[in-house]
Amino acid sequence: MKVLIVYGTRYGTATEISEEIARVMESEEIEVDVKDARSLKHFDISPYQLVVVGSGIKMGKWTKKSLNFLKENKEALASRDVAIFVTCGAANEEKNRAEGQEKYLDQVAATNLVNEPVTTGLFGSKYDPDAKHGLMYNFTMKFIKKDLEKHGIDTSKPIDYRNWDEIRAWARGLAESLKNE
Ligand SMILES: Cc1cc2nc3c(=O)[nH]c(=O)nc-3n(C[C@H](O)[C@H](O)[C@H](O)COP(=O)(O)O)c2cc1C
Predict the structure, then answer these.
(1) Which residues line ligand 1 (CB under 6 A)?
(2) What are the chain's domains?
């Protein structure tokens, strides 16, 4: 029983989530391979019973490579369990979560998967005042910083909106579903 986790990331957030999902599954005696979608080309997914594919969101979009992974393996994925997740700003606030679920998960699944995913995960992002990732990132962070400050939130320190308990529970749920098959 083997699990493959493929992630697309621009700033490393999805990497950390993928690694935590892997840690939880490994603690349940499941063998897990974690791969950056950028490192994969014509990758053989036949050894894997469950494939987890996740991405960070930028301007409404998954990374090209993680989406390409879904497209290129559409047929092979049809005969396996597939779970998808995203990390995005929309997950951080209750009022934006339904839209995030619809645009970044449900629509992506409907367009790129033959079958419904076994589950989807909508996970938060992080705010790091010291991170430097180029113009577009800095511009967006300035905007987010202003908005946080408007709500009286201290922006001098990093804020992690990822709910790690929720992420671990999600991973445990997947591990359970594998054992029950
Ligand atoms: C330039 C930029 C654009 C973003 N666009 C969106 C967006 O359209 N929707 C959203 O919910 N979050 C958006 N975010 C937040 C990211 O999705 C979030 O930081 C995520 O955790 C990034 O994942 P990654 O580090 O794995 O790429 C954006 C962030 C940046 C820096």
Answers:
(1) 9-14, 56-60, 87-90, 100, 125, 136-137, 140
(2) 2-125+161-179 (3.40.50.360), 127-160 (no CATH)
